[in-house]
Design a protein that fits this description.
Elements: H1 2-20, H2 28-31, E1 38-46, E2 55-65, E3 71-79, E4 85-95, E5 100-107, E6 112-120, E7 123-132, E8 135-147, E9 150-158, E10 163-173
Length: 174
C-alpha cells in the first residue's frame, strides 16, 4: 500500500509539472510555410533521362494547415502524360532544433521522399539523398517565389560531380 501511495504522489507531481509548462506554439519560421497554402496548379517539363522519357507534367495541389499550426499537408495529383498519373501526400514543417525545414512525401507509386530545406530571400531550397538502383544521388528542389500567387521551380540531381536538370516549370495559385 505504501508503494501505491508513493507512486500516486509521484504521478501527481509529474502531472503538476507538465500542467505548468506552456504548450509549444508555432513561431515565425513555421508561419513562412503559409506561402504554400491553397490550391495550386503546376505545369512543367521533365527532361528525358534517369527519371523516364520526359515530357509535360501537370500537378494540382491542395495545401492546408494541420491542426496545431506546425505542419502543412499537401494532397497532389500528378499527370506525367505517357509516364502515368499518381497521387501524393506531403507534410512540410520546421524543425526548431535543427533549424531546417522538413519535407516528407509519400506517393501512390510507392516512392518516399525525405528532404531538408532552407528559405533565404525569395528562394526555398530542399536537399535529399535518392536511391537510383544501386547508386545514391543527391536531389535538389528549388522554388523561386515570384509573387504571393506564383513561383518557378526546378528539380536537379547530382552524382557528386555536377547538377543535372531533371524538371522545371511554374506554379500558380488559383
Amino acid at each position: 500500500m505504501k508503494h501505491l501511495l508513493l507512486a500516486m504522489a509521484a504521478a501527481m507531481l509529474v502531472s503538476a509539472a507538465f500542467a505548468q509548462q506552456e504548450a509549444a506554439k508555432p513561431d515565425a519560421d513555421h508561419q513562412k510555410l503559409s506561402y504554400f497554402l491553397g490550391n495550386w496548379t503546376t505545369e512543367g517539363h521533365m527532361k528525358p533521362g534517369l527519371m523516364g522519357r520526359g515530357g509535360k507534367v501537370t500537378i494540382t495541389e491542395d495545401t492546408v494547415w494541420m491542426d496545431g499550426g506546425f505542419f502543412i499537408i499537401t494532397h497532389s495529383t500528378v499527370d506525367a502524360g505517357s509516364m502515368g498519373t499518381s497521387t501524393e501526400i506531403a507534410l512540410m514543417g520546421y524543425d526548431s532544433d535543427e533549424k531546417v525545414y522538413t519535407y516528407d512525401e509519400f506517393s501512390s507509386t510507392g516512392e518516399v521522399t525525405h528532404a531538408k530545406g532552407k528559405f533565404e530571400n525569395d528562394t526555398w531550397t530542399w536537399m535529399n539523398d535518392m536511391k537510383m538502383g544501386s547508386q545514391t544521388v543527391k536531389g535538389r528542389y528549388t522554388v523561386k517565389v515570384l509573387s504571393p500567387t506564383s513561383y518557378t521551380y526546378k528539380f536537379e540531381m547530382s552524382d557528386g560531380e555536377k547538377w543535372n536538370l531533371v524538371m522545371d516549370g511554374k506554379s500558380v495559385k488559383k
